[in-house]
Give the backbone structure.
Amino acid sequence: MKSLFVRILIIICVVACSFATHSCTSAEAKRVKTHRAVKQKKQSKVGVASQVIKSDKSLVLGNDDKLCVDRANELAFTLLKKQSSSEPFKSFTFSPLSVSYALAMASNGASGATLKEIEALTGPSAAANSFYSRYVAHFTPSVVMSNYLAMNNRFIINPDYIKAITGVYNAQVSNLDFGTSKATQQINDWIKQQSGGEFDNIVKQTHPNEIIYLINYLKFKALWVNPFDKNFTFDREFTNDDGITMQVPSMFRYFRELYYEDNACQAISMKYDNSEFCMLVVLPKDVKINKFLSMMGAEEFNRILSGLKAPERVVDLILPRFSTDCNLNLRDILATLMPTAFNDNADFSRLSKAHSYINRFTQDTKITVNEYGTEASGVTVQSNIFKSINLSFNATHPFLYFIYDETTHAILQAGQFCGDS
């Protein structure tokens, strides 16, 4: 008779991406001309300051490290394409970095074909452990990460697995009875505490046959180096790829920007203050966003980043102010990439002698982008009515965005904006 089959390795990625507001008034910015002069002057000052306060927690990447980043970014685009294909006219956001962290933690319990499948997405398990343990130390104050391992006390978990998760990923560990509602409450309490109440009741009910919950919480919080002036935020027409035109609050600023352009797209990179992270906004030119995405990948992403340069002229930037909350069930998508990990053939023998597989992989994310950084309050943008002689970047149709690390190019947050909120 078939031995007792126990369902479950559960990985839940809970990600918050939010930003602090900052009081920023510009009394003299009552006209576009004045606005430009003030912002240009401020830009020159901030440019010097940003060099002084830049973090010294730089990483020197070895070949294994680069492989891990490339695998994580390829996974980012795979998930981005699949999600965009399933909901082509809807805004969404997710954290590729959090997914990669969760998979890297899971790899420490996998063996055989299951381990090979995970490593195809993360890089070799040992290399991923080494890179991600050092990458946490590389984070500037704008990023907070915490990990959690909740274990069912009805099962024996391999001590080496616990050691890896606590030692490499600094995870907090709880030994709980998953057959009680108290276990569900304790897991949710941890998530709620880590997120400052932003996420609650993520886990609906633990099951007696579940072995572990792996949870990664990631929060990004930063202000722009060059904030937008709230006085120049107005409603502006935004046309979705299904032909629907709507009024979207849009911001405007006039700065020298890191800018890229080719026949297929425009791209602009905006720096966060006291952080090694930037937001890259990629605006397709003549094609719908899902068709444009079919041509994108980690290699194309790096090519755009390598092509960014400060233009001789400033850029008139129009960008929607937006806020997106998203709950993604990534199980089905990941099951196509690592099928044995999600079925009876899974091999998580380094996790526990009890036969287990991944039965749940979800991610809850939030992002808000406003004049000061990115936050969930409404701000409206309409371009000033003048004919500019400068480069124009008018995000008035669907676009992609990526929060990435300047040093490694690892993608922390990614998404598409389609005008809905």
